[in-house]
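Q: What residues go here?
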């Protein structure tokens, strides 16, 4: 069971649903993906990506539309160490958490190239505005013991917080494969 969970967590899951349409009609696409990565007991990362678009099919080869995408990801890390030195020891603990969010919206164009009467290769171009933000938090502490008695806190409990926001333009060119179940008569 653990291996199955690890396999699912390490594999990018992509679900994409498309409605096949005829010329001069609208169609909608939706996509989503998730990743879960757990390196060891003290480190893990999660990510969720959702997207969609509304498109207008100009003819059997071209479609134009508006696309959106939203991504959320989180990573956490907790570490600790105990070091012995003679009759005493010192300990160190640290933890950190980072969260990332991004949004994208923009126009897209898609060109379909028929390979068979029911299968088509497509190329897609997107451009638009991209926003992202990230926040990170971390804390650490250390202490020492000598002969079973508490000696001192080597340093102190430290906390750190930072955030970042950005806006940018983004352009993407990608390819894909789709079925053309409703367009068979157009391609013959």
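A:
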């Amino acid at each position: 069971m653990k291996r199955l969970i690890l396999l699912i967590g390490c594999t990018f899951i992509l679900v994409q649903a498309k409605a096949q349409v005829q010329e001069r009609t609208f169609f909608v696409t939706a996509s989503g993906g998730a990743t879960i990565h757990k390196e060891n007991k003290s480190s893990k990362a999660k990510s969720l990506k959702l997207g969609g678009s509304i498109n207008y099919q100009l003819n059997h080869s071209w479609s134009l539309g508006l696309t959106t995408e939203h991504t959320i990801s989180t990573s956490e890390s907790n570490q600790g160490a105990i070091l012995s030195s003679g009759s005493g020891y010192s300990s160190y603990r640290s933890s950190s958490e980072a969260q990332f969010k991004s949004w994208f919206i923009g126009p897209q164009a898609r060109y379909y190239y028929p390979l068979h009467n029911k299968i088509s290769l497509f190329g897609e171009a997107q451009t638009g505005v991209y926003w992202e933000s990230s926040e990170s938090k971390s804390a650490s502490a250390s202490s020492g013991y000598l002969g079973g008695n508490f000696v001192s806190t080597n340093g102190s409990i430290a906390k750190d917080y930072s955030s970042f926001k950005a806006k940018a333009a983004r352009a993407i060119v990608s390819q894909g494969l789709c079925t053309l179940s409703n367009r068979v008569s157009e391609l013959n």
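A: Context that may help when evaluating the design: The chain has one domain: 2-187. DSSP finds two helices and eight strands in the chain.
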